[in-house]
C-alpha cells in the first residue's frame, strides 16, 4: 500500500464534517487520524465517531498531542485560527486554513499551489475566492485586468454562524485574493445571503474591465481553467458563454467581460445547494492531497 500522511480536522461544524466525508471517500495520500472540536455532543463529532474516526472535544490541544499528525485542516474561525497558527507551526504541523484569517499565503489549487507547496501554513481564502479567482487569473494571463468585481449569492441556510461572523473578513480577503492571485489591478467582492426556499445553489457574477486582450484568447483561457477546476469541483460550471461588451466608466470606455458561474455541491454531507461550502472543502481536499504527496516525496529522497 502506498504510504499515507496522517491528517486531522480541527472544527466539527458543517465545513469540517463535509471535508471529513470527502477525505474518507477518496483518501489518496491522506489518512484521517482525528477530528477535534470543542463540543463532544456536536453532530460532526458524532458522525466522525460513527465512521471510525478518532474524535476529541479538546480542540487544538488534542491535535498537538499527536506527533504523527502532519497536516491540520483548520475549519474553525478566523479569530480562532489566528491563535492556532503559531502553535501548529511550533509543533511542526502544516496548517490548511479554511477560515479567512490569511495567516499564510493565499492558495487556489488550479492557480498557484505549486508556488507554496513547501509552506507551513496556506490559506484557502473564501468560497467566493475559490470560485472566481481562477477566472480572473485566466483572463489576466491573456489581457490586462484593470478591475474585477465579483458578486457571490449563496443560500442563507448554508451560511452558518462562522460564515456570518466572518463576513467582513470575507470581503477583504476575497478582494485581496482577486488582486494578489487573480492578477487584477483592483478587486472588489460582494456577498449576498439569499433566504429563498427551496435553497438556491451558489451563483457568482464576475465583471472584468480589461485592455489589450482578444476575446477569442480570453474565451480559450477561461475554458481551460474551468476544466481544470472541474477536476476537483465537478459542480463548477459557467452559465452560457462569456459576455463581451464595452462600457462607459469614469476612466473612459472600457472593454468588459461578464461571467456567470454556478457551483453545485457534491452532496457528500451538505445539500447540493451548499456549493459555497463544497468548493471550500473540495479545494482544501485537493490542497491536502498535493501537500501529502510532497511530504511523501521528500521522505523518499531522505
Tell me what you see in this structure:
This protein is an alpha/beta fold and 302 residues long. The chain folds into two domains: 5-124 and 281-301, Rossmann fold (3-Layer(aba) Sandwich), CATH 3.40.50.720; 127-276, 2-Layer Sandwich (Dihydrodipicolinate Reductase, domain 2). Helix content is 38%, strand content 26%. The chain is built from nine helices and twelve strands. The chain has helices at 14-25, 43-50, 59-64, 78-90, 127-140, 161-165, 167-180, 215-230, 275-301; strands spanning 5-10, 30-36, 55-56, 71-74, 94-97, 121-123, 144-155, 187-194, 202-211, 236-238, 243-249, 252-263. The protein has a six-stranded parallel sheet, sandwiched between helices. Strands 7, 8, 9, 10, 11 and 12 form a six-stranded mixed sheet that branches. Strand 4, helix 4 (78-90) and strand 5 (94-97) form a beta-alpha-beta unit. The longest helix has 27 residues, at 275-301. It is globular. The two termini are 20 Å apart. The model has no long low-confidence stretch (mean pLDDT 94).
Write down the Rg: 19 Å
Please identify the structural class as seen in this structure.
alpha/beta
The CATH homologous superfamily of the largest domain is called: Dihydrodipicolinate Reductase, domain 2
- How many runs of DSSP E, i.e. beta strands? 12
Q: Tell me the strand order in the biggest sheet.
A: 3-2-1-4-5-6
Helix content: 25-40%
Shape call = globular
Distance between the termini: 20 Å
CATH architecture of the largest domain: 2-Layer Sandwich
**pLDDT average, as an integer?**
94
Stated plainly, the CATH topology of the largest domain is called Dihydrodipicolinate Reductase, domain 2
Q: In CATH's first tier, which class of the largest domain applies?
A: Alpha Beta
Largest sheet properties: 6 strands, parallel
What is the H/E string?
A: EHEHEHEHEEHEHHEEHEEEH
GO molecular function: acetaldehyde dehydrogenase (acetylating) activity; NAD binding
EC number: 1.2.1.10
Pfam families: AcetDehyd-dimer (PF09290), Semialdhyde_dh (PF01118)
Keywords: Aromatic hydrocarbons catabolism, NAD, Oxidoreductase
Amino acid at each position: 500500500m502506498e504510504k499515507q500522511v496522517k491528517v486531522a480536522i480541527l472544527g466539527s461544524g458543517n465545513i469540517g464534517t463535509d471535508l471529513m466525508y470527502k477525505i474518507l471517500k477518496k483518501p489518496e495520500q491522506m489518512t484521517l487520524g482525528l477530528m477535534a472540536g470543542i463540543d463532544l455532543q456536536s453532530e460532526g463529532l458524532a458522525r466522525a465517531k460513527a465512521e471510525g474516526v478518532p474524535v476529541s472535544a479538546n480542540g487544538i490541544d488534542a491535535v498537538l498531542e499527536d506527533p504523527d499528525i502532519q497536516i491540520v485542516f483548520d475549519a474553525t474561525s478566523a479569530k480562532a485560527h489566528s491563535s492556532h497558527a503559531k502553535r501548529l507551526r511550533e509543533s511542526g504541523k502544516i496548517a490548511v486554513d479554511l477560515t479567512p484569517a490569511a495567516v499564510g499565503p493565499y492558495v487556489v489549487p488550479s492557480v498557484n499551489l505549486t508556488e507554496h507547496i513547501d509552506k507551513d501554513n496556506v490559506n484557502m481564502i473564501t468560497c467566493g475566492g475559490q470560485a472566481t479567482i481562477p477566472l480572473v487569473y485566466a483572463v489576466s494571463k491573456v489581457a490586462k485586468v484593470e478591475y474585477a468585481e465579483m458578486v457571490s449569492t449563496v443560500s442563507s441556510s448554508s451560511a452558518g454562524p462562522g460564515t456570518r461572523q466572518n463576513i467582513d473578513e470575507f470581503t477583504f480577503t476575497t478582494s485581496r485574493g482577486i488582486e494578489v492571485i487573480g492578477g487584477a489591478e483592483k478587486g472588489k467582492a460582494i456577498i449576498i445571503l439569499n433566504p429563498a426556499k427551496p435553497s438556491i445553489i451558489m451563483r457568482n457574477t464576475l465583471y472584468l474591465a480589461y485592455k489589450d486582450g482578444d476575446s477569442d484568447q480570453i474565451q480559450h483561457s477561461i475554458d481551460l481553467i474551468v476544466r481544470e477546476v472541474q477536476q476537483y469541483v465537478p459542480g463548477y460550471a459557467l452559465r452560457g458563454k462569456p459576455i463581451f461588451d464595452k462600457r462607459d466608466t469614469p476612466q473612459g470606455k472600457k472593454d468588459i467581460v461578464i461571467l456567470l458561474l454556478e457551483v453545485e455541491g457534491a452532496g457528500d454531507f451538505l445539500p447540493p445547494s451548499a456549493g459555497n461550502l463544497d468548493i471550500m472543502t473540495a479545494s482544501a481536499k485537493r490542497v491536502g492531497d498535493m501537500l501529502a504527496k510532497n511530504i511523501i516525496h521528500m521522505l523518499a529522497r531522505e
